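subagent[fold] <- orchestrator: predict structure for attached chain, return tokens only, no commentary.
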Amino acid sequence: RQQPGYILIAMVLILAAISSVELVRGLNASSRDDAREQRLARSAMREAKMALIGKAVATDNTAGSLLCPDNHALNDATWSGITEGGCAPNGSEDIGCVPWKTLGIPPADQVGIERLWYALSPNFNSSIPTYVNTTAPSRDKLGMQINLDKLGSLALSPAYSNVIAVLIAPGPALNNQTRNATDACGITNAPNYLEAANATANGNLVAVSHDNTFNDTLIPITNNDLYRPLINIVLSQFANTTAATTHGLQWYFAQTNSSSSLLNTPSSLEQYVIPSPSPPMASVVMGRSAISTQFDQQFDTASVLNPGAGGAGCNGVGSSSPSYTQASSWLCYNRWYDYILYRGIGNIATLTLTLPPPSTHSCTLTVNTTSSPDKLVCI
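subagent[fold] -> orchestrator:
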């Protein structure tokens, strides 16, 4: 007579066990889905990060400046994926989507994730002109030159500060988010894709564990990420060995055909690069540091801007003879001369750039004015 009761209890226990198993399976499946989406997101963001840096170091405007974000709607067949023509050089953060079409990379939705978002330090955006002859904003007038003293303005908690840019992969829409193909990719719609401070464009972003209130995945573009490849471009542009005797270091060499005599002859290199009068090299204080030996020289942009009587300036348009021609005007206007260490012995010159601490990365370009090929070594 008691058996039916036992059977009922047993059935309840079995159903509870089955429910628990199904719940665990559901949680495990959800966890696996989230992990898979994060792997896809990180892979897509790494590709976008490399493309953004590659574009930045090769730009003709100011090497090291990054594309403005894309602010167009997803269903805009013409403009979606295209960088904006300009983003304001002020405020805390430029935010939008990765301009995948401009970069020549696949859109993120091809691998089954939301389009990638992109926060950029305003002082690194590529829409700021390097130099203009008017009162219009430019890097030299705004004090927004890109060089080794310039850091990003974003923070990515809990691990990063002074970040140049941050890539953000939104997870699936959460309960309070609605998304449409007509959404423009900008601050107005950011809360429907991003969570917490990531949606506020205040320059402070966060990366925390995923839960039911947060599922953004983020990776930064740090100063080290950008400057490591950039200093190679700076050295190569300044050496400019393909420009014969009319630009940059080749112009210096052409004055005496010897790098060491350039350092010891006031009428040549010293006249155009270091302040007048020209004391012995061992005691000259130039740019950011004192000269350590007779053959070490830190180029000084202040003197380059007004080289000797020529008054050539960064654009290399000399008003009197001898004419002085820059290797690239962006090198001058962004004050890269202040950071290049020059050493010349005989017909061989070396140009060195070293990243500031805590990095120990350094690149040296060796240029031989006779027949040996140039050599770039980074450590």
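orchestrator: received. Logging for downstream: Residues 3-57 form the longest helix (55 residues). The radius of gyration is 28 Å.
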